[in-house]
Amino acid sequence: MNSPINEDHTTSSPTDLLIVGAGIVGLAHAFEAVRRGLTVRIIERDARPNGASVRNFGHCCITAQEGRYLETAFTSREGWLAAAGEVGFWAPEAGAVVVARSHTELTVLEQLSEKRGPDSVQLLTAREVSSRLASSGSADAAIMGGAFLPADLRVDPRTAAPDIADWLQKQKGVTIHWGTSVRDVHEGGTVVTSRGDFEADKVLVCVGHDLDYLFPEIAARYEVQRCALQMALAPAPSGYTLDSAVLTGTSMTRYDGFTTMPAADALRQEIYGHSPELIDIGANVMFTRRPDGTLLLGDSHVYGQTIGPFQDEWMTDRLVQEIEKVLGSALTVTQRWQGIYASSPLTSLLVEDVNPTTTAITVTSGIGMTLSFGIASETLSAL
Ligand SMILES: Cc1cc2nc3c(=O)[nH]c(=O)nc-3n(C[C@H](O)[C@H](O)[C@H](O)COP(=O)(O)OP(=O)(O)OC[C@H]3O[C@@H](n4cnc5c(N)ncnc54)[C@H](O)[C@@H]3O)c2cc1C
After folding, report:
1. 125-146, pLDDT tens digit by residue?
2. Cα–chain-centroid distance for residue 140?
3. How many CB atoms lie within 10 A of CB 379?
4. pLDDT digits over 80-108, tens only?
5. Is the CB of 233 under 6 A from ligand 1?
6. Domains along the chain?
7. Whose CA is closest to atom 33 on ligand 1?
């Protein structure tokens, strides 16, 4: 558990680094800073990590990144494994299985395998995919094959960030102020909070989709919006033990590694032809298993400046129905929730100097778990 909310700290001494936000982006920066011997203060408005970083699939989606983000993702993979080694959280090198249920889906995977090489994108037969998905049910008869992406990592999103925070606050030179809101950051490194002012040589603002509350002009320049996702939890069917993330055809319409393949447009049209509602809700039908045997199921994508609290039941039902088809088993949903992340049509990663001592860092796409430690390594190396 995280420590209780801190008392006022108006006289605390300055630190090398002050990080706003104890989501995975802020925590990864703190971890990398500690490795480099810096003193770190983290200011978090909630009493524990409670944002996008605990609401996601816990899938470090390395292979399906493209261009500069592919490189950052591989750096991030090393950071995640180093953190898991130090902190002791669950992070199996379990890869991802991509299920193909049409010739077009198979073609996208073949094209990616050809581009990246057969070791990075290992093509699977229908029988191999079905045996990986094995449980008491029998996997979808429509499965034609698939691919295994061995570089992808898994973590448990509900425990990874809290465990990193717990570990950090036991390290010399690190303080986390829970229940403390940052209101402003002045040039020169003064951070104004609901519990007094703090000083630091360098300030990193890692507040995810709430960047517009602090720096609306930067958020507006990057056309940052909120993206809301509907998620559900269900016990895995008996006999299902796969730790790999499982992606499907709709996933291939969302990650740049797939969408840059020549057959990607045809795939999108194909899915729109038989399941227009999945394209309309921006579905990425995928699931991951947590170490306690439950499955994280999702997801849909709805965009807006302000996200309403009302979740359409049919969307989650439709996603769960699709996953039941893949697994060949009925699922009993025990929890539903909404996750929100930042989205920009202009970039997947917003890094912007607010003033000479302050930098805002927000991942503006649904890949913040994947990139977090890579971004942190790049930021700290540039300091
Ligand atoms: C449902 C869902 C599924 C996803 N699946 C994946 C996935 O499988 N793989 C992947 O790579 N990515 C995934 N993502 C994206 C990923 O979760 C995010 O990109 C990532 O968690 C963002 O981390 P963050 O630290 O920037 O944000 P957050 O985790 O939201 O943390 C920001 C923190 O800043 C704090 N804060 C905000 N304002 C202030 C302030 N003024 N003062 C103090 N504190 C403040 C907040 O309280 C919060 O704790 C998913 C996202 C969602 C919602």
Report:
1. 999 999 999 887 789 999 999 9
2. 27
3. 21
4. 999 999 999 999 999 999 999 999 999 99
5. no
6. 1-93+153-223+345-383 (3.50.50.60), 96-150+225-343 (3.30.9.10)
7. 21
